[in-house]
Design a protein that fits this description.
The protein is an alpha/beta fold. 32% of the residues lie in helices and 30% in strands. It has seven helices and ten strands. The strands form two sheets. Strands 6-7-8-3-9-10 form a six-stranded mixed β-sheet, sandwiched between helices. Strands 2-1-4-5 form a four-stranded antiparallel β-sheet, with helices on one face. Strand 4 and strand 5 form a beta hairpin.
Length: 227
């Protein structure tokens, strides 16, 4: 099994006045293709920054970030956008659904920016994904007509529409009750069984315990990795 994500001595610095803040401080880690891993740590530990580096939303100050065999730190914004659109799906704490679109239309939205496949095929895939996450019956509902758990299921389906190789989730259960959070992780577990690589940032130790490995961050530093 090969590494689909690999970070070597990655540093991300931010300036705060005259001070340099190490949001990520010489982090090295690898994630194998098909793994389900979590990143945990206190607020301000660098979890979301690290996920943004993996997801090509941000670039490191120094060090190497490899995604699906490609070094990303020297790529143009257009090239980074291409990786985000074709290889990575994103799920966030805030569901970020467009309020005037139905659940099905929200799932379809990333396909507008993809040249891969015909629209009819994408529509069929969107319907199949809503069925996969257990919300097919709500396909024609607007976000305001959905519960928090249902909105997050729509967001997961949307993240999968372009058939990514990697799913990145930043506090995906942070706005959910315990039952809805459990259902989200059950969906992640099903996707993992189907071979998808998943990296999730979470404060929930119980849910992190369901993943293959746990990476622990503090003050931007990787403390350890627990299998």
């Amino acid at each position: 099994m090969s590494s689909i994500i690999e970070l070597k001595e990655v540093v991300k610095l931010y300036r705060r006045g005259s001070e340099n803040i190490h949001a990520v401080d010489r982090v090295s880690l690898s994630v194998q293709e098909g793994e389900f891993v979590s990143i945990v740590g206190p607020s301000g530990s660098g979890k979301s920054t690290l996920l943004n580096l993996i997801g090509c939303i941000d670039t490191p100050t120094s060090g190497t970030v490899m995604v699906d065999g490609q070094p990303t730190q020297a790529l143009t914004e257009k090239e980074l956008a291409g990786i985000r659109n074709s290889r990575i799906g994103f799920v966030f704490q805030q569901f970020s659904l467009l309020p005037t679109l139905t659940a099905l239309e929200n799932v379809m939205l990333p396909a507008v920016f993809s040249r891969n496949g015909q629209r009819t095929l994408k529509t069929n895939r969107a319907e199949a994904l809503l069925d996969l996450v257990g919300i097919a019956a709500r396909a024609d509902h607007l976000p305001a007509q959905l519960s928090g758990g249902e909105m997050q299921r729509v967001a997961i389906a949307r993240a999968l529409i372009n058939e990514p190789k990697i799913l990145l989730a930043d506090e995906p259960t942070g706005n959910l009750d315990s039952a809805s959070a459990e259902s989200v992780y059950n969906i992640f577990g099903k996707l993992h069984q189907n071979g998808l690589t998943i990296v999730v940032v979470t404060h929930n130790a119980e849910l992190a315990g369901k993943t293959d490995r746990v990476f622990r961050l503090k003050d931007g530093k990787l403390l350890d990795s627990v299998s």
